[in-house]
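Schema walkthrough. Field components (list of strings):
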Amino acid sequence: MINSSLKQLGAMLQTKQVSSTELTQAFLQRIDQHNPEINAYITIEAERSLAQAKAADARIAAGNAAPLTGIPIAQKDIFVANGWKTTCGSKMLDNFIGPYDATVIKLFDDAGAVNLGKTNMDEFAMGSSNETSYYGKVQNPWDRTRVPGGSSGGSAAAVAARLCAAATGTDTGGSIRQPASLCGLSGLKPTYGLVSRYGMIAFASSLDQAGPMAKSCEDMALMMNVMTGFDERDSTSLQRDKENYERELGKPLQGLRVGLPKEFFAEGLSSEVAAVVESAIAEYRKLGAEIVEISLPNTQLSIPVYYVLAPAEASSNLSRFDGVRYGHRAAEYDDLLDMYCKSRAEGFGAEVKRRILIGTYVLSAGYYDAYYLKAQQIRRLIAEDFAKAFTQCDVIMGPTAPGTAFRSGEKANDPVSMYLEDLYTIAVNLAGLPGMSIPAGFASVDGKQLPVGLQVIGNYFDEARMLNVGHAYQQVTDWHTRMPEGL
Amino acid sequence: MSLSSSDVKRIAHLARIEVSDEEAEATLQKLSGILGLIEQMQAVDTAGIVPMSHSQDVVQRLRADVVTETNQRATFQAIAPAVEEGLYLVPKVIE
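Field assembly_structure (string):
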């Protein structure tokens, strides 16, 4: 049951082979057993989840079930959920009980899905290893001494360890795709503006986008059908008709033009990852794809551009945490200014503070043109690289991350080396394009088999085709069905 | 661009985050590494390039100027650090 696809689970629920209550209890039991070590969840509220499961069972009995009705889904702790503790991985929000529902939460609730719990994450989604969480690091289920990636590391570990049927994540610079790669699952960051950001605690508003993290592309298509759609509560939400993301599944890939950016296979890519990615591309050739070499010449610049834009937007977004209306307030202070400074010094962790300081610096008087404006100009160059590439190919493929999961602590003291983890993913956020990571095989590292992800980048609004590109590969390979040992 | 530890303290003050002298010193090294990374941008000629703030060509939506939200003061104040009679309490700011 824990390995079943969302469609299979839906069918089992429909035919009463299992109830949502039983399914939810089964996952809660697995969480009880494995979460103390893996630490994928910050908050579990069994009673709430089971109440939702009971309601789902009634809905199924009444014949009103939607495709995800009764299925337990884990929610990244960045989504505010009414009545649920919502921390964003920070001490700042340790006492924060959500007073309303994020749109993503509401959409899953309306679909009848069960909220199984809130997953661990890097503090305010700032990190690539899940080590900046106030609630402790998350173990990679494939090797417990290694990181799951980040920032959606808890969601990735929960899916990989089968502690949920599927999960949500958010991706500002790679936070869905990189952990999906490091934990051996499928993750999709949609086109910017497709999924509402209402109630999703903001990091860098022009880059943040929520998406599904699941065992397969078919599962992700079902979740996309629920998550996407115009929302008037998000000023950047795109006014578009609802799409059916399953519509392309099963179509042949004959004649698909796959672009390989030569910059993604250059210095910095580990040889183990390169070998796995190349064998996946050979598989696509067999499926009828035509491989073309392309160039994204400004790839290297995406990291400096990101580390201006994202901290600048974060420093502005995180100014709301002032200890006045909600969140942490210092116990002792002299006056109002001191209360702000002490509350923020105590509530934020080191990486969050660093990014706020970088953002404050690049936005401070006299530096705007040299940093923020310059970064936005180069951002256009990066987007134009992709526009040019998509005249030569239908999808772009390459590695998701430069290496496999690294050891806990290995990069924790060197922010710059941690930032390079996102070399292949960040440009996609800057351009606002959809990007996906799917399991492409394993690399043998120190006697352990560690998952490797293949990144698929599509043109704007091309998610349905991308999901089929992943689905076709998952019909002829079984990497996505593999499970870590001991679980 | 190189920073000094007093620059770090000045920026931290602008960001309303208290830092001790030791923290400023430790932060300085890490910030310098990050700023070094950012400096790579300066080698690019960006003359005449229009800055990009959004990937899609979208315009700000407008709506009628009417009240759409219900009063949720009690709900929101239930999670506030300190409130009294519907007001948020802060240290005295007017002598």
